[in-house]
């Protein structure tokens, strides 16, 4: 048990170092040797834990995504059966958190300069963001929208997540305005998933 805790602490320390360096220099400026030095471990240890820079990118993105998804679940749960309030809270929180997140800012800034190596891990990697964020919405909807069609729920959740991600990457309006507009769409999509009473 102690070894597992120590291994987790080691990995977390390396990911913390990668996060700090990404915020400071952008992902393109992150070097495995610098990550090792910042984490206080050997370069070989970083390679042993993550294999490649891509492996480290995935671990860094996974931690951010897990945190976002956990917060989305909490926002949805807080509003119970109120479809509009729950979706608005989850969407607004996600947009506002992403706008204030220094890692997301660093990734978006560097990607606009031509680097897109880390951006896909936080946006369109279906096994990371789309599936996990959609699952959180589907789980909530299955509990609070009785009679909803599973395929329609899956489509609604996937569509909402994709729209939110697009507005994180390319914001066009203030967070509150975007959240309100996306909530109207989400309510229609989820509402359409509820099967009519027979």
Overview of this protein structure:
- The protein has 198 residues and is mainly α.
- It folds into two domains: 1-51, Arc Repressor Mutant, subunit A; 60-193, Orthogonal Bundle (Tetracycline Repressor, domain 2), CATH 1.10.357.
- Helix content is 79%, strand content 0%.
- The protein has ten helices and no strands.
- The chain has helices spanning 2-25, 32-39, 43-50, 53-78, 83-100, 102-112, 119-122, 126-144, 150-169, 175-193.
- The chain is elongated.
Record the SSE blueprint.
Blueprint: H1 2-25, H2 32-39, H3 43-50, H4 53-78, H5 83-100, H6 102-112, H7 119-122, H8 126-144, H9 150-169, H10 175-193
Helix pairs in contact: 1-2, 1-4, 1-6, 2-3, 3-4, 4-5, 4-8, 5-9, 5-10, 8-9, 9-10
Reported for the largest beta sheet, the result is:
none
The helix tally amounts to 10
- The overall average pLDDT, rounded, is 87
Classify the secondary structure makeup into a structural class: mainly alpha
C-alpha-based Rg, rounded? 19 Å
The CATH architecture classification of the largest domain is Orthogonal Bundle
Span between termini: 54 Å
Query: Which shape, going by the Cα principal axes?
Result: elongated
Percent in helix: over 70%
Low-confidence stretches: none
Strand content: under 5%
According to CATH, what is the class of the largest domain? Mainly Alpha
Protein name: TetR/AcrR family transcriptional regulator
InterPro entries: AlkX_C (IPR040611), Homeodomain-like_sf (IPR009057), HTH-type_TetR-like_transc_reg (IPR050109), HTH_TetR (IPR001647)
Keywords: DNA-binding
Pfam family, one: TetR_N
């Amino acid at each position: 048990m102690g070894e597992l805790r120590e291994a987790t602490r080691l990995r977390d320390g390396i990911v913390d170092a990668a996060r700090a360096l990404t915020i400071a220099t952008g992902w393109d400026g992150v070097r495995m040797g610098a990550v090792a030095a910042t984490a206080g471990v050997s370069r070989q240890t970083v390679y042993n834990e993550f294999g490649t820079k891509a492996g480290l990118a995935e671990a860094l993105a996974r931690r951010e995504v897990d945190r976002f998804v956990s917060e989305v679940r909490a926002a949805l749960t807080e509003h119970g059966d109120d479809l509009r309030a729950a979706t608005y809270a989850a969407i607004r929180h996600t947009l506002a958190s992403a706008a204030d997140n220094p890692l997301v800012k660093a990734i978006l800034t560097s990607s606009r300069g031509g680097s897109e190596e880390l951006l896909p891990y936080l946006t369109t990697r279906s096994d990371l963001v789309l599936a996990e964020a959609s699952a959180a919405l589907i789980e909530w909807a299955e509990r609070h929208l009785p009679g909803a069609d599973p395929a329609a729920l899956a489509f609604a959740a996937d569509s909402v997540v994709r729209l939110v991600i697009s507005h994180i990457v390319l914001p066009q309006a203030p967070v509150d305005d975007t959240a309100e507009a996306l909530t109207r769409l989400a309510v229609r999509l989820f509402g359409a998933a509820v099967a009519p009473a027979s």
